[in-house]
Design brief:
131 residues, mainly alpha, 2 strands, 45% helix
């Protein structure tokens, strides 16, 4: 009924039907692959290839509900034990340290220099790494 109502533009109806079909008939609310609906990953890969001029493999693309979830997934994948740390700029976005804490790792902070346009140096990175 809703689709036939004419409420939505043709391209929206077409895209919705395409995505619905890609769920394998499971419909709205169905679980997809944990890395995202294959069709959407293929579309993202095509977009990246056109934009960047390099091929992108949909099998290597993981979709998330946002940047925060993506960062948390990456950090979680990298942290194996409490001995693991990740270098984080200071000041930093609190998501990084929170995700590290949740994953059982620890932050290795390196300082950014405000006077230098929030840049850092190799010496500062080495200092933080060796601390």
């Amino acid at each position: 009924k809703l689709v036939a109502s004419g409420l939505f533009p043709e391209d929206v109806v077409r895209r919705a039907a395409e995505y619905h079909g890609a769920t394998g008939g499971s419909g709205v609310g169905a679980y997809t692959d944990s890395i995202g609906l294959q069709l959407v990953r293929e579309q993202v890969a095509a977009f990246l290839a056109e934009r960047d001029g390099y091929p992108a493999d949909p099998a290597l693309i993981a979709l998330t509900t946002g940047a925060s979830e993506g960062v948390k997934r990456c950090i979680s994948a990298l942290i194996q034990t409490s001995d693991c740390g990740i270098m984080i700029p200071k000041p930093q976005y609190p998501l990084y340290s929170a995700a590290l804490t949740m994953s059982g790792g620890h932050a290795v902070y390196y300082n950014l220099d405000e006077a230098a346009g929030w840049r850092t140096t190799w010496a500062e990175l080495e200092r933080a790494y060796n601390a």
